[in-house]
Amino acid sequence: KVKAKDQKGKKITLKMAKNCIQISSDGGLRLDLSKMGITTFPTCILKLADVDELDLSRNMLKKIPSSIKKFQKLRWLDLHSNQLQELPAAIGTLQKLSYLNICNNKLTTKGLPEELNLLKNLCILNLGLNCLDSIPTTLGALKELQEVSVFDNALTNIPNSVKKLPKLKKLNAQRNPLPDSTKPEEDVDSIKRMETLCLVQEKDLCCSCLKMCQDERDKVNKLTNVIPSPSNNPSFSSLLTPNSSAKNNQEEWRLK
């Protein structure tokens, strides 16, 4: 009997739900039913559909009903850490929604309704810790998105329509089997290295500096037939024409 009761989860009454209403930081109404051991969506809260924020996180919900569409004033919806495998198409009717957190569920790509692209005011979307193997390209229609999290999924690609969202400031795609991203970092590093190379013309040097460069160049010319060992590479930091020795003798070096 105890096990059967646990499987049903905690029953939420209207009175209990009313006692969970808080005033949010911006003066709106927030219904906080997080960490309540809920296994099924409590239909009684449909009578409280005028709230601005709804928190059902850290429960055991497996399904969100289409009746969620009654929460037309909703700006903030937190469903993270449940057991959801899909979202209802009706979620696309929540036109005022700016924050949607469905992290740490069991959502698959097929479980994301196409109607998500109707949430035109959505600024923050968290899809991390799910079972997604791709991101719908239609999310590129959400022009107000500023933060997108898709970490800890099975993604091999991020659509350009998402990466090029006009207001996107943060895209967290860590711990996905995406293509190796080390090459771009190497390219950036090589560019940084090139920033230390400075070329000047003879006319821009003072007499003493010009003489010093010419002396160094004369030393290089004397060493043209000598192959420096890896441990004894001469450094000619003030050469007027860097790598001149290599240019003049590269064919000879290849032969040796």
From TrEMBL:
PROSITE patterns cross-referenced by the UniProt entry: LRR
UniProt domain Disease resistance R13L4/SHOC-2-like LRR: residue ranges: 68-194
Pfam families, per database record: LRR_14
Gene3D superfamilies: Ribonuclease Inhibitor
Organism superkingdom: Eukaryota
Ranges of Low complexity composition bias in the record: 228-245
Record key words, sorted: Leucine-rich repeat, Repeat
One of the record's GO cellular component terms: cytoplasm
Keyword hit for Transcription regulation: no
Annotated stretches, region: Disordered: 226-256
Name of the protein: LRC18 protein
Organism: Urocolius indicus
Phylogenetic classification of the source organism: Eukaryota, Metazoa, Chordata, Craniata, Vertebrata
